[in-house]
Write a structure and sequence with these properties.
It is a single chain. The two termini are about 30 Å apart. The longest helix is centred in the middle third of the chain and has 20 residues. The radius of gyration is 23 Å and the shape is globular. About 30% of the residues lie in helices and about 25% in strands. By secondary structure, the protein is α/β, with parallel strands linked by helices. It contains eleven helices and 18 strands. Keywords: Lyase.
Length: about 425
């Protein structure tokens, strides 16, 4: 297996020197003026130290479980893992992923890539086309400044190859940029739709003085919407077309190993089967999985569809655990059957599923919350429909499970990470969106 990528641990450690103030919603004013390091030394609690609501917290135990579980499963299957960093945009979490053996970190935009490089991430898989001249000029400078920096991106058109070549030959370029032919799905996102286009793109890459053909990439997510047999069959068919493209381009690749990559967080079991199945003799394939949402999992979409979710399709390792919870206070009971929570679209995700009420915290303790559901979200309020026998009062707090991690982290610059009691803050995780 390829060597794990690196991150600048000193740069990550410097985050603990940032001072807390009004920029970070939910941080209690009693911690203002302290550095993150100084605040953590006090072992603050979400409720006893007055973190202001709403607050989204991470569960450290669940996070560590998920990191270890995915690392063990990838090692067992012979897969390299380059988790998509867009899920969290948190360098401290990148460091934990790399500490568990991740091969690299995946990016999709130049903005994300700049964050990665600011923290010294040494190997980046750019799962997108990169055609912007300014972005390519900056990339060329990074490649020149750091000989150990490894970068690979996608391309899906001859015109894209021409634009990359024009931009890169207009600036000092110390080494060619590694690119993958991207395979796509009809009606989906980027990626070639047929083999003749794949051949033409590959030929254009090998003719370019600024590029090197390094493999084939794709994203199977648009092929299937759930864990049904029809969806799984469609995912398998797409992955089969990726394999056919690799075989068709055999002999044209310009690198020692052929990088073949796919894998969102919903069908990574099917990706593993496809990418680790026997390849033609003499074709040295490096299979790379890009799943990112596994690090926190969730209580919604991924719980339902992940191979390691509530209905696991993988039995060799334990299921993933949700590491996300939002806490919101009940601020109104204006009519029977309705409670208003002080949390909304600015704080929690709503693009796939609404938050799931799970626990109720009152003056007398915390217990499970049943016969309640979030029926709607406004910008700053959640409408909680409650059954006639559910006792919930103004001032109580509701713990909510969340769906779709990718639209959780972008709403928070600093998230508390809680220990085994679910309240004591053991770290503050900085994000960069």
């Amino acid at each position: 297996m390829a060597v794990t990528a690196r991150i600048d641990q000193d740069a990550v450690a410097e985050l603990a020197g940032e001072r807390l103030d009004w920029r970070f919603k939910s941080i209690p004013h009693g911690l203002f003026g302290l550095t993150v390091r100084e605040a953590l030394a006090r072992r603050p609690g979400l409720f006893r130290d007055g973190f202001t609501g709403p607050v989204v917290a991470l569960d450290n135990g669940a996070l560590e479980h998920n990191l270890a579980t995915m690392a063990a499963w990838c090692a067992e299957r012979g897969l390299a893992l380059a988790p998509h960093g867009k899920t969290t945009m948190a360098p401290a979490l990148f460091a934990r992923q790399l500490g568990h053996g991740a091969w690299g970190i995946t990016a999709a935009t130049v903005g994300q890539l700049r964050v990665y490089r600011a923290f010294g991430v040494s190997r980046v898989l750019f799962a997108n086309e990169l055609l912007d001249p300014g972005g390519l000029a900056w990339l060329a400078g990074e490649l020149a400044a750091d000989p150990d920096f490894e970068f690979t991106c996608w391309v899906d058109s001859v015109r894209g190859v021409e634009l990359m070549t024009e931009a890169l030959t207009a600036v000092p370029l110390t080494r060619p940029v590694r690119v993958l032919v991207e395979v796509g799905i009809a009606g989906g996102r980027t990626g070639v739709r047929d083999q003749s286009t794949a051949r033409a793109v590959a030929a254009a890459i090998t003719a370019s003085p600024a590029l090197r053909l390094a493999g084939v990439g794709g994203y199977e997510g648009p092929a299937g919407s759930d864990g049904s047999e029809d969806s799984l069959a469609a995912v398998d068919a797409f992955l089969g077309r990726m394999r056919e493209t690799v075989a068709m381009l055999r002999g044209q690749f310009e690198t020692d190993s052929v990088l073949v990559t796919a894998g969102g967080s919903a069908f990574f079991d099917r990706v593993a089967d496809a990418l680790t199945a026997p390849w033609p003799a003499g074709l040295p394939v490096l299979p790379v999985l890009r799943s990112g949402a596994y690090i926190t999992h969730d209580d919604g979409f991924y719980r339902g569809v992940s191979p390691l979710g509530a209905h696991p399709r993988v039995s060799s390792v334990p299921p993933l655990r949700s590491a996300l919870r939002a806490w919101a206070q009940v601020v109104s009971r204006p009519e029977p059957g309705l409670a208003l929570l002080a949390v909304g679209k600015r704080d929690v995700p709503y693009d796939i599923d609404l938050p799931e009420p799970q626990v109720l915290r009152t003056a007398t303790g915390t217990h499970g919350l049943h016969d309640a559901r979030v029926s709607a979200l406004n910008d700053q309020h959640a409408f909680l429909a409650v059954g006639s026998h559910t006792r919930i009062a103004v001032g109580d707090w509701v713990g909510l499970g969340l769906s779709h991690p990718c639209t959780v982290f972008d709403k928070w610059q600093l998230l508390p990470l809680t220990g085994t009691d679910g309240e004591t803050v053991v770290d503050l995780v900085r994000t960069f969106f």
